[in-house]
C-alpha cells in the first residue's frame, strides 16, 4: 500500500527527511549557522532543535571551514553529520575541507574509511541577494571525484534524494534552489528514497530533449506547455544528480528526439551543459543529431542586484521557448 | 647526577620524578624508547631509499622530533584518535602502526596502509586510531574537533589528539578549530610541534606572538609549553591534558618546542638557518637523552638499551625488505576507492 501523499513545500519536505533520518538513526545530527532556535536562514530546520535538542541540532560559530571539517571528522568516526551552509556561496570558505579532505580521504587511505556526510547547499538567484548569495556553483563540486552532487527540483525529490544522501556512505552535496523552498507539491509520508544517479523524464516529447535541473526544470516545463500549442513537443529530463550523471537517460532521449538543449543557471562556459553536450558527442546518440547542440546557461557575469538585470543573467521561460523553437527548426 | 640519585632511596627519587615516570611502567618506558628508535630508523631508511632511487615523490622527515610524537601518544589507547601532519611518520609509529605497512606505503605498494594511493603524506592507520597524515597545513585541525564531537555525542570516554606544526598556527583552520573545541568543551588536545620553521620562514617572521601556546588564552584553554625533546616532559603534559579532556573540562593547547634537524623536504637547501644552529639541536637529540635518563633512573641497563636499539633496527630492516618485495597496485584499479558505492 502506498503511503498517504500530502502537499508540502520543498522546505517542509527537507525538514521531514531530516526528522525521519534523525528518528531512525542516532548517528545523524545537524550542524550549521543559526539552524537551532532561529530555524535556519530559510526556515528549513524549523523546530528540529526542540524535537531533538541542541546537541543534535547544533548551532555553529560562523566558521564554514571549521564546520565542514568538523563534519568530516565526525563522519570518519562513526557519525552521520549534516552540515548546512547558510548559502552555498559560503562553501567557498570551506573548499579545503570539501575538496581536499571529504572528497579524497577514502581514496587517499586506500578505501580504509568512508566519509558519510551531507552538505546542504542553498543556491541560485532570484531573491535579490546579489553576487555573493546567489551563485550556482554545483558544477565546481561535480568536477571532484569522491563527491556526489544532487539537485532536486520538487518537494517529492527533495525528500527522497536527501534521505538517499543520508543513507549514502560517501559525501553528498544537496543543492537546494532557494526559489523552490516555498514551492508546494505532493510528498508521500514516511520513508522513501530517490536513487542518487538517476535522472527523471518529467515530460515526454518527440522534437527536442531539454536537460535541466532545479528551478530550470519548472521553466522548461512551462516552455514546453507554450510550445505544445505550436505543435513542438519538448522532452524534459530532470537531471536530479550531477555526479554521478545519468548518461543513459539523456542518450536514449536524444536518439529519439535528435535534438539536444541543456538549460542551467550556472555560468554557461565550462558548466553542466558542456558535460551534457560532450557525453552526447561521445555517445552513439551523436549520429542521431539533426541539429547542433544548444546550451542555455547563465550569463558570463556575477549575479547582479537590479531585478531586471538579475533576470537577464539566467535563463527565463521566454529564452527557453525561443531557443527550443529555433532548435526544433520548424518541425512539428 | 647519577651519584646523587643513587644516594637517594628509589622511593624518594620516584616521588620527585615527572608524572610520566610515575605513571608509566618500566615496560611502557622501554616500549616508548623502542618507538623513538623505530621512528628514527624508519626515517633514516626512508631517506636512504630515496637517495638510492627506490622511492618517489617527496617526504618530510621528523628526525629530532621523536620525543614529541611518542611522548604525546604515551597515555593513549586505540580508542583515542590522532590527526597528523605532512611530517607524520613519527605520529604514526607512536600511535602503534606497523613499520612494514608504512614502508610499503612509502614505496607505493599494494600492501601499504593506503594500498599505495596515499604515500608518505597520507599514511593512516584507522585501527590504531590514526585518522591520517595530511598534505594540507592545518587540514587535520577541524577534523580532530569533529572526532572529539563524535566521541562526545557517542558518550565515549576517549580523546582526540591533533598534531600540527608551527606553520599551521597561522591558518584560519587553527583558529576556527580551537574556538569550536572550546565553545563546545570537547575532548581534544591540540599539539603544536613547533620546530621553528614553516618551510623556510621562522616563527619570528611569521607569528605575532612569541609562543604558539600564547594563543590558547584567546580560546579560554590552558596553553602549555614543554621542551619537545624531553620525553618525560611531553608525556607528562599529555597526561594532564588527556585527563582534563576526559573530565569534560575541554581542550588544551600544548606547544612542544623542538627542531627538525633535516630540511623541510627533499628540495630544502638549508639556506635559512646556520650549520651551528642545526648542530646545537643535534646535541639535544631526544633519543640518547631519553636513553641516558632511563639508565640513570634505573629503568634500563645499558645492555637493555642496546637490545632495544638492535630490535628496532631488525624490525626496520624486515619492514624494508617486506616493502621491496611487495607488489605494486594494478593500474587497472586506478579509480578504485574513490567512492564506497
Written overview of the protein:
The complex is a heterodimer of chains A (332) and B (341). In chain A, helix 1 runs parallel beside helix 7 and helix 3 packs parallel to helix 4. Chain A is globular, with a radius of gyration of 20 Å. By secondary structure, chain A is an alpha/beta fold. Chain A has two domains: 184 residues, Rossmann fold; 129 residues, Rossmann fold (3-Layer(aba) Sandwich), CATH 3.40.50. Chain A is built from twelve helices and 14 strands. Chain B is of the alpha/beta class. Chain B has a single domain, classed as Rossmann fold. Chain B is 45% helix and 9% strand. In chain B, helix 4 packs across helix 14, helix 5 packs parallel to helix 11 and helix 7 crosses helix 14. Chain B is globular. At the A-B interface, helix 3, helix 4 and helix 5 of A face helix 8 and helix 9 of B.
Write the layout of secondary structure elements.
The complex is a heterodimer of chains A (332) and B (341).
Chain A: E1 5-9, H1 10-24, E2 28-32, H2 48-52, E3 57-59, H3 64-75, E4 80-84, H4 95-102, H5 105-108, E5 118-123, H6 138-142, E6 148-150, H7 155-167, E7 172-177, E8 184-188, E9 200-203, E10 208-212, H8 215-228, E11 234-238, E12 241-243, H9 247-257, E13 260-267, H10 272-281, E14 294-298, H11 307-313, H12 317-328
Parallel strand pairs in A: 2-3, 2-4, 4-5, 5-7, 6-7, 10-11, 10-13, 13-14
Antiparallel strand pairs in A: 1-8, 6-12, 9-11
Helix pairs in contact in A: 1-7, 3-4, 8-12
Chain B: H1 2-7, H2 10-15, H3 19-23, H4 26-51, H5 66-73, E1 81-83, H6 89-94, H7 99-106, H8 140-153, E2 160-165, H9 172-183, E3 188-194, E4 197-198, E5 201-202, H10 203-206, E6 223-227, H11 231-246, E7 252-257, H12 275-282, H13 286-296, H14 302-325
Helix pairs in contact in B: 4-5, 4-13, 4-14, 5-11, 7-14, 8-9
> Major sheet of chain B: size, sense and barrel closure?
5 strands, parallel
Q: How far do the termini of chain A sit from each other?
A: 41 Å
CATH topology of the largest domain in chain A: Rossmann fold
Q: Please work out how many helical segments of chain A DSSP would assign.
A: 12
Greatest chain-chain contact? A-B, 42 and 46 residues
- N- to C-terminal distance of chain B: 62 Å
- Uncertain runs of chain A are none
Major pleated sheet of chain A:
7 strands, mixed
Spatial order of the strands in the main sheet of chain B? 1-2-3-7-6
Task: List how many beta strands of chain A DSSP finds.
Answer: 14
Name given to the CATH homologous superfamily of the largest domain in chain A: Thiamin diphosphate (ThDP)-binding fold, Pyr/PP domains
Count structural domains of chain B.
1
Given as residue ranges, the uncertain stretches of chain B (5+ residues, pLDDT < 50) are none
User: What's the assembly state of these chains?
Assistant: heterodimer
Question: Strand arrangement, largest sheet of chain A?
Answer: 3-2-4-5-7-6-12
Number of domains of chain A: 2
CATH architecture of chain B: 3-Layer(aba) Sandwich
